[in-house]
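Teaching note: in complex prediction, the entire set of molecules is handled at once rather than each chain in isolation. The prompt given to students was simply: 'Predict the structure of this complex.' The entities are:
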Amino acid sequence: GQQLNQSPQSMFIQEGEDVSMNCTSSSIFNTWLWYKQDPGEGPVLLIALYKAGELTSNGRLTAQFGITRKDSFLNISASIPSDVGIYFCATTKGANAGKSTFGDGTTLTVKP
Amino acid sequence: GAVVSQHPSWVICKSGTSVKIECRSLDFQATTMFWYRQFPKQSLMLMATSNEGSKATYEQGVEKDKFLINHASLTLSTLTVTSAHPEDSSFYICSAPGTTSYEQYFGPGTRLTVT
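The expected output is the structure of the full assembly:
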Protein backbone atom coordinates (compact mmCIF):
# COMPACT_ATOMS: atom_id res chain seq x y z
CA GLY A 1 0.00 0.00 0.00
CA GLN A 2 0.90 3.64 0.19
CA GLN A 3 3.77 4.41 2.52
CA LEU A 4 4.71 7.72 4.02
CA ASN A 5 8.19 8.34 5.32
CA GLN A 6 8.00 10.84 8.13
CA SER A 7 11.09 12.35 9.71
CA PRO A 8 12.51 12.89 12.13
CA GLN A 9 11.08 10.16 14.33
CA SER A 10 11.58 12.30 17.42
CA MET A 11 12.85 15.72 18.36
CA PHE A 12 14.03 17.20 21.65
CA ILE A 13 14.18 20.99 21.53
CA GLN A 14 14.38 23.98 23.82
CA GLU A 15 11.39 26.25 24.27
CA GLY A 16 11.51 29.07 21.76
CA GLU A 17 13.26 27.10 19.03
CA ASP A 18 11.78 26.50 15.61
CA VAL A 19 10.89 22.97 14.48
CA SER A 20 10.70 21.40 11.07
CA MET A 21 9.43 17.96 10.11
CA ASN A 22 8.53 16.40 6.79
CA CYS A 23 6.85 13.57 4.99
CA THR A 24 7.81 12.01 1.71
CA SER A 25 6.42 9.30 -0.47
CA SER A 26 7.04 7.66 -3.81
CA SER A 27 3.37 8.18 -4.69
CA ILE A 28 1.47 11.28 -5.78
CA PHE A 29 -1.36 12.52 -3.55
CA ASN A 30 -4.28 14.93 -3.80
CA THR A 31 -4.09 16.13 -0.21
CA TRP A 32 -1.68 16.42 2.67
CA LEU A 33 -2.97 16.72 6.19
CA TRP A 34 -1.10 17.39 9.40
CA TYR A 35 -2.50 16.18 12.74
CA LYS A 36 -1.31 16.50 16.32
CA GLN A 37 -1.98 13.83 18.93
CA ASP A 38 -1.64 14.57 22.62
CA PRO A 39 -0.93 11.61 24.94
CA GLY A 40 -4.02 9.48 25.44
CA GLU A 41 -6.08 11.50 22.98
CA GLY A 42 -7.20 11.25 19.38
CA PRO A 43 -5.46 13.27 16.65
CA VAL A 44 -6.57 16.82 15.96
CA LEU A 45 -6.30 18.36 12.50
CA LEU A 46 -3.80 21.21 12.33
CA ILE A 47 -3.52 22.06 8.65
CA ALA A 48 -5.00 20.69 5.43
CA LEU A 49 -3.33 21.20 2.04
CA TYR A 50 -5.16 20.61 -1.22
CA LYS A 51 -2.96 21.98 -4.00
CA ALA A 52 0.62 21.41 -5.06
CA GLY A 53 2.79 24.27 -3.92
CA GLU A 54 0.23 25.48 -1.41
CA LEU A 55 1.66 27.13 1.69
CA THR A 56 -0.73 27.46 4.62
CA SER A 57 -0.32 28.84 8.12
CA ASN A 58 -2.22 28.25 11.33
CA GLY A 59 -0.79 30.50 14.02
CA ARG A 60 2.80 29.46 14.61
CA LEU A 61 2.41 26.47 12.29
CA THR A 62 3.18 26.55 8.58
CA ALA A 63 2.83 23.65 6.18
CA GLN A 64 3.52 23.27 2.48
CA PHE A 65 2.29 20.82 -0.15
CA GLY A 66 5.31 19.90 -2.27
CA ILE A 67 5.36 20.82 -5.94
CA THR A 68 5.88 17.20 -6.92
CA ARG A 69 2.83 16.22 -4.79
CA LYS A 70 5.01 13.60 -3.14
CA ASP A 71 6.01 15.48 -0.03
CA SER A 72 5.04 18.01 2.59
CA PHE A 73 6.66 19.76 5.52
CA LEU A 74 5.41 21.28 8.75
CA ASN A 75 7.21 24.06 10.58
CA ILE A 76 6.52 25.24 14.10
CA SER A 77 7.99 28.57 15.07
CA ALA A 78 8.90 29.70 18.59
CA SER A 79 7.94 26.40 20.20
CA ILE A 80 6.21 26.35 23.58
CA PRO A 81 5.75 23.49 26.08
CA SER A 82 2.21 22.75 24.92
CA ASP A 83 3.54 21.89 21.47
CA VAL A 84 4.60 18.57 22.97
CA GLY A 85 2.93 15.62 21.28
CA ILE A 86 3.04 13.41 18.24
CA TYR A 87 2.64 15.01 14.84
CA PHE A 88 1.32 12.88 12.01
CA CYS A 89 1.19 13.59 8.33
CA ALA A 90 -1.60 11.95 6.39
CA THR A 91 -2.62 11.76 2.78
CA THR A 92 -5.43 10.64 0.57
CA LYS A 93 -5.45 9.72 -3.08
CA GLY A 94 -9.16 10.00 -3.59
CA ALA A 95 -11.95 11.98 -2.02
CA ASN A 96 -12.37 9.58 0.88
CA ALA A 97 -11.15 10.55 4.31
CA GLY A 98 -11.28 6.95 5.39
CA LYS A 99 -8.67 5.98 2.87
CA SER A 100 -6.12 8.23 4.51
CA THR A 101 -2.65 6.89 5.08
CA PHE A 102 -0.78 8.10 8.14
CA GLY A 103 2.93 8.56 8.62
CA ASP A 104 4.64 7.00 11.61
CA GLY A 105 4.65 10.29 13.48
CA THR A 106 7.20 12.71 14.87
CA THR A 107 7.33 12.87 18.65
CA LEU A 108 8.15 16.37 19.82
CA THR A 109 9.51 17.14 23.28
CA VAL A 110 9.95 20.76 24.30
CA LYS A 111 12.11 21.59 27.29
CA PRO A 112 11.03 24.73 29.17
CA GLY B 1 -18.67 21.93 16.52
CA ALA B 2 -17.79 18.53 15.02
CA VAL B 3 -17.14 16.75 18.28
CA VAL B 4 -16.71 13.00 18.40
CA SER B 5 -16.84 11.19 21.72
CA GLN B 6 -15.89 7.66 22.72
CA HIS B 7 -16.92 5.54 25.64
CA PRO B 8 -15.34 4.14 27.65
CA SER B 9 -12.04 6.02 27.64
CA TRP B 10 -10.31 2.98 29.04
CA VAL B 11 -11.29 -0.59 29.84
CA ILE B 12 -9.62 -3.62 31.31
CA CYS B 13 -11.10 -7.01 30.58
CA LYS B 14 -10.20 -10.63 31.03
CA SER B 15 -9.09 -12.81 28.17
CA GLY B 16 -12.04 -14.46 26.44
CA THR B 17 -14.58 -11.76 27.24
CA SER B 18 -16.09 -9.25 24.83
CA VAL B 19 -15.85 -5.49 25.04
CA LYS B 20 -18.02 -2.88 23.35
CA ILE B 21 -16.69 0.58 22.48
CA GLU B 22 -19.06 3.39 21.50
CA CYS B 23 -18.33 6.24 19.13
CA ARG B 24 -20.75 9.16 18.97
CA SER B 25 -20.93 12.27 16.85
CA LEU B 26 -22.25 14.85 19.30
CA ASP B 27 -23.31 17.78 17.17
CA PHE B 28 -23.54 16.40 13.67
CA GLN B 29 -24.69 13.33 11.83
CA ALA B 30 -22.25 10.84 10.42
CA THR B 31 -23.35 8.28 7.88
CA THR B 32 -19.79 7.01 7.88
CA MET B 33 -17.36 6.51 10.72
CA PHE B 34 -13.92 4.95 10.77
CA TRP B 35 -12.28 2.71 13.33
CA TYR B 36 -8.53 2.72 13.87
CA ARG B 37 -6.18 0.94 16.22
CA GLN B 38 -2.90 2.31 17.39
CA PHE B 39 -0.16 0.37 19.15
CA PRO B 40 2.26 2.25 21.43
CA LYS B 41 4.63 4.52 19.56
CA GLN B 42 3.07 3.52 16.25
CA SER B 43 0.80 5.13 13.72
CA LEU B 44 -2.93 4.76 13.21
CA MET B 45 -4.05 1.77 11.21
CA LEU B 46 -7.50 1.80 9.67
CA MET B 47 -9.48 -1.27 10.70
CA ALA B 48 -12.84 -0.70 9.11
CA THR B 49 -15.34 1.79 7.72
CA SER B 50 -18.67 1.84 9.52
CA ASN B 51 -21.68 2.62 7.35
CA GLU B 52 -25.02 3.63 8.82
CA GLY B 53 -27.69 1.12 7.95
CA SER B 54 -25.40 -1.29 6.14
CA LYS B 55 -22.49 -3.61 6.72
CA ALA B 56 -19.09 -2.31 7.67
CA THR B 57 -16.19 -2.51 5.24
CA TYR B 58 -13.12 -4.13 6.75
CA GLU B 59 -9.52 -3.56 5.74
CA GLN B 60 -7.44 -6.47 4.60
CA GLY B 61 -6.28 -8.63 7.47
CA VAL B 62 -8.94 -7.44 9.95
CA GLU B 63 -11.19 -10.24 11.19
CA LYS B 64 -14.78 -9.10 10.83
CA ASP B 65 -16.06 -11.82 13.15
CA LYS B 66 -13.71 -10.67 15.87
CA PHE B 67 -14.26 -6.94 15.50
CA LEU B 68 -18.01 -6.50 15.17
CA ILE B 69 -19.15 -3.09 13.99
CA ASN B 70 -22.67 -1.76 14.21
CA HIS B 71 -23.73 1.67 12.95
CA ALA B 72 -27.36 1.71 13.98
CA SER B 73 -27.96 5.46 13.88
CA LEU B 74 -26.54 8.59 12.32
CA THR B 75 -24.73 9.47 15.53
CA LEU B 76 -23.55 6.15 16.93
CA SER B 77 -21.18 3.43 15.82
CA THR B 78 -20.03 0.61 18.07
CA LEU B 79 -17.03 -1.67 17.90
CA THR B 80 -17.22 -4.94 19.80
CA VAL B 81 -14.02 -6.86 20.36
CA THR B 82 -15.17 -10.44 20.78
CA SER B 83 -13.27 -13.09 22.73
CA ALA B 84 -10.54 -10.60 23.48
CA HIS B 85 -6.96 -11.73 23.90
CA PRO B 86 -3.93 -9.88 25.25
CA GLU B 87 -2.74 -9.15 21.71
CA ASP B 88 -5.93 -7.13 21.20
CA SER B 89 -4.72 -4.66 23.82
CA SER B 90 -4.40 -1.37 21.99
CA PHE B 91 -5.69 2.18 21.63
CA TYR B 92 -8.85 2.19 19.54
CA ILE B 93 -9.83 5.47 17.91
CA CYS B 94 -12.90 6.31 15.87
CA SER B 95 -13.40 9.22 13.52
CA ALA B 96 -16.00 10.81 11.30
CA PRO B 97 -15.48 12.73 8.05
CA GLY B 98 -15.21 16.48 8.40
CA THR B 99 -16.61 19.32 6.37
CA THR B 100 -14.48 18.28 3.42
CA SER B 101 -14.30 14.65 2.47
CA TYR B 102 -10.58 14.57 3.16
CA GLU B 103 -10.66 15.62 6.78
CA GLN B 104 -11.58 13.57 9.81
CA TYR B 105 -12.68 14.43 13.32
CA PHE B 106 -11.25 11.93 15.75
CA GLY B 107 -12.64 10.73 19.04
CA PRO B 108 -10.45 10.77 22.14
CA GLY B 109 -9.73 7.05 21.89
CA THR B 110 -10.33 4.02 24.08
CA ARG B 111 -7.47 2.23 25.78
CA LEU B 112 -8.20 -1.51 25.90
CA THR B 113 -6.12 -3.77 28.11
CA VAL B 114 -6.81 -7.49 28.02
CA THR B 115 -5.37 -9.46 30.91
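Point out the following to students. The longest strand of chain B covers residues 44-51. The two ends of chain B are 37 Å apart (CA to CA).
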